[in-house]
Amino acid sequence: MAFGWIDEQARARGRAGLVRTLRPRPADSPLLDLASNDYLGLARHPEVTEGAAEAARRWGGGATGSRLVTGTTELHDELERELAAFCGFEAALVFSSGYAANLAAITALAPHGSLIVSDAGNHASLIDGCRLARGTTQVVGHADPEAVRKALETGGGPAVVVSDTVFSVDGDAAPLSELAQVCREFGAGLVVDDAHGLGVLGDGGRGAPYAAGLAGAPHAEYPEYPEDIVVTVTLSKSLGSQGGAVLGPARVIDHLVNAARTFIFDTGLAPAATGAALAALRLLRREPERAARAREVAAELHARLTASGLEAVRPDAAVVSVRAPSPERAVRWAADCRTAGLAVGCFRPPSVPDGISRLRLTARADLTGGQLDRAVRVIGETRP
Ligand code: PMP
């Protein structure tokens, strides 16, 4: 049998308690949601769903072709201009997913003969970008600018440092200012994935690079847009839609249009997703307090879990990670939460390379005090 070997893998997964299954989410789920990445509660906001519906009515159910052929609408143009201006970069390019944006940024900016320095805690899409790129990857310790410096000392040609801004499972932040400083010293480029920073960190949710003073409209002190930093984002978390984008200098964006295979050979982002993201971005500009509220809810959730004796990582954005004693007990814990009406994320190896299973909770800006009370109570009562 051609694929006989997969049965042995399935049995091994079963023995280790690591089988994953899909379960459709009902449209009107009664569960309290601390599992999704809808950090600002915008995915079902009427302005966002209407943005999607209006775009689909006007432009159709799909983009109809790649961005360079028929897949670019004026909505894509508007989203790119407004996203770049909001986050403080010269230009932006929208992709069909954050995953595709990461593959594009790394492969197009790390040619043959280049060095890629990648944080050990990076998201799978950054890791895959490194694997696909022609450059040579050196993985360095998590959030360790000194390790990055040592790696850069070994390189001779072009170099690029790759990191998440906020790490997706533990919710801790990368030392962005220090990384930018080391990159400057070595003339290296910095590519950061702000999937979990956009909409949560920085003034009004402008993202982690903006919060670190690495992005922003040119002004007297910094007459140019950032030249050596490229940021990737997803439209599927704080913006409640789907898709991704790369932000950076216009010459880098032009390069991606001409060289990034996940841009050139992929169908453009669907109009509905583009319209939803644009509506969410405009809403966030009008209601900047949503970002600070997500951070407050995360801090409050962490404080209360810790006070009840649970081991939780101090959140730098909207993700709160709670340690579980084993993969089996993590699964049991998440299932018991579900039975008690609470949806939480459950992360086990191999999604977590350090082998430590966790519950992953997301603090939404629109959680009420009563909902927070309930969530903390359920997590405490169901602890293994
Ligand atoms: N980067 C990070 C850090 C992520 O957490 C995710 C989503 N899980 C992605 C990229 C991929 O984004 P998308 O879901 O838009 O493909």
Automatic annotation (TrEMBL):
Pathway info: Cofactor biosynthesis; biotin biosynthesis
Keywords tagged on the record: Biotin biosynthesis, Pyridoxal phosphate, Transferase
GO biological process terms, semicolon-separated: biotin biosynthetic process
Residues in Aminotransferase class I/classII large domain copies: 31-379
GO molecular function: 8-amino-7-oxononanoate synthase activity; pyridoxal phosphate binding
Membrane-spanning parts: none
Cofactor(s) the protein requires to work: pyridoxal 5'-phosphate
Enzymatic reactions: 6-carboxyhexanoyl-[ACP] + L-alanine + H(+) = (8S)-8-amino-7-oxononanoate + holo-[ACP] + CO2
Stored Gene3D superfamilies: Aspartate Aminotransferase, domain 1, Type I PLP-dependent aspartate aminotransferase-like (Major domain)
InterPro entries linked to this entry: Aminotrans_II_pyridoxalP_BS, Aminotransferase_I/II_large, AON_synthase_class-II, PyrdxlP-dep_Trfase, PyrdxlP-dep_Trfase_major, PyrdxlP-dep_Trfase_small
Its EC number(s): 2.3.1.47
Subunit description: Homodimer.
Similarity section: Belongs to the class-II pyridoxal-phosphate-dependent aminotransferase family. BioF subfamily.
Protein name: 8-amino-7-oxononanoate synthase
Protein source organism: Streptomyces phyllanthi
